[in-house]
Specification:
The chain is of the alpha+beta class. It contains 1 helix and 4 strands, in the order E-E-E-E-H. The chain has one domain. The longest helix has 14 residues. The radius of gyration is 12 Å and the shape is globular.
């Protein structure tokens, strides 16, 4: 299946082991982070944080598809 990521200008896969423990995808427009989708291994849940009030629905859908493609579903201890 070929997934369209045309709305995503730039993304970074980043892990965090400081204030929280997990891995996520950060979505950017230029140098501005628009949103983050994060798998929190401590809370055992996945969360979305929006850094801009209004985002294109297609961008959000593509970001979720990218997250599901790049980040494993299994939580780590």
């Amino acid at each position: 299946m070929n997934i369209d990521f045309s709305k995503i200008e730039k993304y970074v896969i980043a892990s965090d082991v400081g204030s929280r423990d997990g891995i996520g995808v950060e979505i950017y427009s230029g140098e501005t982070m628009l949103m983050e989708i994060f798998r929190d291994d401590t809370k055992k849940k996945m969360e979305v944080t929006l850094y801009q009030k209004e985002l294109d629905l297609e961008l959000v859908e593509q970001a979720i598809a990218l997250f599901k493609k790049e980040i494993p579903n299994e939580y780590e201890d």
